[in-house]
Amino acid sequence: MFLLEPVPEYLSMSFGAFARKHELETFIPTISRLNTGVRDLLTMPMVENLRIIGLSLVKLLRIRFLTTEKRANSELHARAQEELLGQQEVLLQSEVVTAERSEQRGVRLLVHTPREARLVHRKASAYHHSAQATSAILT
């Protein structure tokens, strides 16, 4: 990691002092869960904490995480799976056997699911967001 000369004060102060100065005490439990396996989080220099957690995570902390009331992200996955299982377009536990792509025909996939074989076709389009996918069960 390259640092400015002289090192800015906020990078050399401890994480605990930085959190108090900027009223970020509520983030301490979250950051301590993310910084597993490090020594005393509050006495570590701020620069070391930033190196470990990274800028992308710091930015996410500013806009808040999406999680459940119980702070269990597995609940998000379970709810998403429940919703998706009711849709025929979701092919869980499937294997793509062949794939073809052409500018004229688009993308064609032959997919084996536990119950059937499906041909999935995404029509070619000048705009990807307007492309439509269709699927058919092969017997």
General description of the model:
This protein is an alpha+beta fold and 139 residues long. The chain has two domains: 9-63, no CATH class; 88-138, no CATH class. Helix content is 35%, strand content 19%. A four-stranded antiparallel β-sheet has the order 1-2-3-4, with no helix packed on it. β1 (95-102) and β2 (106-112) form a beta hairpin. Residues 127-131 have low confidence and may be disordered.
The arrangement of helices and strands along the chain is HHHHHEEEE
Shape: elongated
Strand percentage lies at: 15-25%
Q: How many separate domains make up the residues?
A: 2
Whole-number mean pLDDT: 77
Rg, rounded, reads 24 Å
* Widest beta sheet: strand line-up: 1-2-3-4
Stretches where pLDDT is under 50 for at least 5 consecutive residues are 127-131
Number of strands: 4
Alpha-carbon distance between the termini? 58 Å
Summing up helix and strand content along with how strands pair, one would put the structural category as alpha+beta
Number of helices: 5
Largest sheet: 4 strands, antiparallel
Helix content: 25-40%
